[in-house]
Fold this sequence. Notes:
Rossmann fold; 4-stranded parallel beta sheet; hydrolase
Amino acid sequence: MTYRVCFVCTGNICRSPMAESVFRARVEEAGLAQVVEIDSAGTGGWHEGEGADPRTVAVLGEHGYGTAHTARRFQPSWFADRDLVVALDTGHLKALRRLAAGEEDTRKVRLLRSYDPAAGDDLDVPDPYYGGLDGFEECLAMVEEASTGLLAAVRERLEGRAA
């Protein structure tokens, strides 16, 4: 049985494609690529059809991650096909919860940094769009840290399904 994870940010060109790429690499390293599907989307459609921001592509490439991506907007019907919808900040979390059709959908929405014990109460991944390359590097570091805990949680869910 496949476990499906979707990362969501604002326009699907910076944070969520970065999280998608990092998490895909972690899943592949863990040997779970056959049972975990990963994608991403934005809460808005401003960049639909575009590639990831060039700064996202540059930072991902520098760190050895894949960069193929086409932006799209999250659709409420996708809740039925996703096991986990991961928001990159509290604004996205609220937007996704508004789109949720009921409690089952709402329970699928989590903040990425909630999987990083070192994050404390600061659970937002800041939007690097209006800044320089250093903001994208900071974003990547946060995504990488949280991806370790997220992978552990997904692995636990998969083991629970197999039991």
